[in-house]
Amino acid sequence: MERKVKKVAILGQGLIGSSITRAIFHRNLPLEVVVTDASEQVCKRLLELGLGRAKVVFSNEEAVKDADLVIGCVPVASYASMVKEVAPHLKLGAILSDVGSVKEAVIEQTLPHVPGNVDFVPAHPIAGTEFSGPDAGLPKLFSDRWCIVTPAENSNEEAVTAVCSFWESIGSKVEVMSAEEHDHVLAITSHLPHLSAFSIFHTARKHEESSGTPVAQYSAGTFRDFTRVALSNPHMWRDIIMLNHKALSEAFEQFSRDMKNILAAAEEGDNRRLEELISESRKMRAENINEEDFSRKKAKVTDAFPSEIAKPYSTD
Amino acid sequence: MERKVKKVAILGQGLIGSSITRAIFHRNLPLEVVVTDASEQVCKRLLELGLGRAKVVFSNEEAVKDADLVIGCVPVASYASMVKEVAPHLKLGAILSDVGSVKEAVIEQTLPHVPGNVDFVPAHPIAGTEFSGPDAGLPKLFSDRWCIVTPAENSNEEAVTAVCSFWESIGSKVEVMSAEEHDHVLAITSHLPHLSAFSIFHTARKHEESSGTPVAQYSAGTFRDFTRVALSNPHMWRDIIMLNHKALSEAFEQFSRDMKNILAAAEEGDNRRLEELISESRKMRAENINEEDFSRKKAKVTDAFPSEIAKPYSTD
Fold this sequence. Notes:
- Two copies of one chain form a homodimer.
- Chain A is an alpha/beta fold.
- In chain A, 51% of the residues lie in helices and 10% in strands.
- Chain A contains twelve helices and nine strands.
- Chain A has helices at residues 15-26, 40-49, 60-64, 79-86, 104-110, 157-169, 179-211, 221-227, 234-243, 245-267, 271-288, 291-304, and strands at residues 7-11, 32-36, 55-56, 69-72, 95-98, 119-120, 123-125, 146-149, 173-176.
- In chain A, strands 3-2-1-4-5-6 form a six-stranded parallel sheet, sandwiched between helices.
- In chain A, α4 packs parallel to α5, α7 packs across α10 and α10 packs across α11 (271-288).
């Protein structure tokens, strides 16, 4: 059995929220969509943009009225207070979901505010760019990307199925796992790369200060790609690192051991082992990431809204 | 005073070597160019490709004959033996240069084989892609990119000026610094990002093995860009890490401290400091790397030889 979703409220219309709105209309899904944003300026911009048949309202309270599915697309640190605010206004039997990059800590903070007659089914679409705001949204942002759904143990199955179906209907591949496992996986595939990108500029600056030689400027594509996400929204990433710092610290410790392991092979002059470790990585990269799929989709996505103004902030 | 360069020999026609050849003819430089490669198959491919007016020969000995400037574009670990081989055949007063990613260790290994009547002026163009081989070369690979020239203390000034001028003539910005300083800078901007990309797949695999959950597949643009260079040539990167492991280890130690510093701010719940550290990185990224310049050049470069077959191997 699946819970019928007719009306969706999307609270927050930044990169992710407005991409969901665009995806719904891009795919002509038979849904009533109400959107809002904490920023009045963003709400006004939404009226200018006119995203599909989305109804723009100026408060969370008004947005969630009669909604079968409410998706909070607000910063992870604001999620609990947003839920507290809308709780009294949620429809009986509504499904409450989100798109946050951190799950366990946010669920812990939020759960006490979720009314008993509402189903809470957290989710995280693994997609993003380094841009943010309502202009940065893309109708195909979620196409062929994973969305991880992290229900609680006692989550209503019909509600979980409904959230999975919603993400599939806008193009995502869906996987269900525990919040804890999600946080460990994302610590490796997203939070650790961000931490690395942020950190390497401090490393470069220290060398610049001690040697008097510029460092970061003597770089090419490797450094540019490695550090692209350092352009991300500092406020958002402060919150993600703060909320997932335990899993991230564990991932960092292992990452550090793995780097030391490669360096040890070099120090010992063990050519065979060094090349083996690098070759294994190359194989894993080739097996896990389909570059063609990315470039194909990127081209399509970029073509979709070429003239939109977007600020350089990241989220995935 | 500048040494006159009329004839250039380029030994090795992989990504970098063949890009130099292409750049010379793309810019119509009045130079006689002789090229060769250790691989007979590559030499035959060069004849098929017909890169400008380059003369293809089948041995290093033949290539360096009468050359005013000899540029070794061979793997860093083969450089010393290549120099040993060509030494008896170099013209009196020839300039010997290279393009290697590691300078100090390679110079140390090579210098004993450089004849007294030849000027040795190592160089390193900071440019590359994850592809390799003669088909991967691009005529604008060096346009607006840095080339670092690392003369020895007793290098002949005219020879140093000639090497700088050569790189400027194919579009590079040139900087002169010591081999030691070069190796520290590149350890941060190139070798550390490669080490990170190689290592994170081992981190991901360990979590996959212990948890039974796939990790690397649940990734988006962040992880793709962070790990692109893991597709690089394992043999080449084995040698770079092996030859520069001291500077790289130092860079890693500082990088590790910088990551711990950000994590410590999170652990202590110090929101202000955490956001400050991230904001500083964002500022340094924005100041040091001009994305527009990259995308503009990338578009041009890609357009140049759209149909060429290239293998996914990296070098910068």
